[in-house]
C-alpha cells in the first residue's frame, strides 16, 4: 500500500469505486469532512494518478457485446521491438478490451468483446490474424459470468 494515502484518502477511493457519480457534498457527508477537503483530496488523488479516469460501466448484454473471448496469443519473435509493435497494434482494435503480457506458454492474453461468434470470427480473420508476428491464437469463450468487479480492495 502506498504510504502517502491516509485513511481518508482510502475511504474516498473506496466510495468512488462503488459510485463515482456521488458529488463532493455527498462524499463529504459520508466522511464527516468539509466539501472543500473532499474536493482538494480528490483533485490530488487524480494528480498523483490514483484515479486514472472516471467511467460508466455498461451492461454488455444491452449494448450487444454478449460474446466474451479470452484469447491467448503466442508470437513468433520475442524482441523488445516485436513485443512493443504487437502491443501498439492490438491496442487499436476496439474489440480488445484488455491486453496483458503473460508468463507461461503464451505471450499475451486478450479479453475480446463482440456481439456474436460470427463477429468474433471476422475480428480474428480480418484483424488479429493479419498481424505479422502472430504464431498461435487459442481462444476460450465465456459461458456465464459469476463475478465481475471493477473495484480493488483497499
From TrEMBL:
Annotated GO CC locations: cytosol
Keyword DNA-binding appears in the UniProt entry: yes
Entries under CDD domains matching the protein: HTH_ARSR
Tagged with keyword Repeat: no
Record domain HTH asnC-type: where: 5-66
InterPro entries: ArsR-like_HTH, AsnC-type_HTH_dom, Dimeric_a/b-barrel, Tscrpt_reg_AsnC-like, Tscrpt_reg_AsnC/Lrp_C, WH-like_DNA-bd_sf, WH_DNA-bd_sf
Keyword annotations of the record: DNA-binding, Transcription, Transcription regulation
One Pfam family matching this protein: HTH_24
PROSITE patterns: HTH_ASNC_2
One term of GO molecular function: sequence-specific DNA binding
A biological process from GO: regulation of DNA-templated transcription
Family matches, as PANTHER family: LEUCINE-RESPONSIVE REGULATORY PROTEIN, TRANSCRIPTIONAL REGULATOR AZLB
Listed name of the protein: DNA-binding Lrp family transcriptional regulator
Organism: Pedobacter cryoconitis
Amino acid at each position: 500500500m502506498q504510504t502517502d494515502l491516509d485513511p481518508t484518502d482510502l475511504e474516498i477511493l473506496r466510495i468512488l469505486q462503488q459510485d463515482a457519480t456521488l458529488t463532493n457534498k455527498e462524499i463529504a457527508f459520508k466522511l464527516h469532512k468539509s466539501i472543500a477537503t473532499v474536493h482538494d483530496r480528490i483533485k490530488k488523488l487524480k494528480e498523483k494518478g490514483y484515479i486514472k479516469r472516471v467511467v460508466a460501466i455498461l451492461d454488455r448484454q444491452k449494448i450487444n457485446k454478449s460474446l466474451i473471448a479470452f484469447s491467448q496469443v503466442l508470437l513468433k519473435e520475442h524482441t523488445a521491438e516485436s513485443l512493443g509493435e504487437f502491443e501498439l497494434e492490438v491496442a487499436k482494435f476496439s474489440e480488445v478490451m484488455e491486453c496483458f503480457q503473460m508468463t507461461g506458454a503464451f505471450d499475451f492474453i486478450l479479453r475480446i468483446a463482440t456481439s456474436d461468434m460470427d463477429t468474433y470470427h471476422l475480428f480474428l480473420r480480418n484483424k488479429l490474424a493479419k498481424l505479422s508476428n502472430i504464431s498461435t491464437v487459442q481462444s476460450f469463450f465465456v459461458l456465464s459470468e459469476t463475478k465481475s468487479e471493477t473495484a480493488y480492495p483497499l
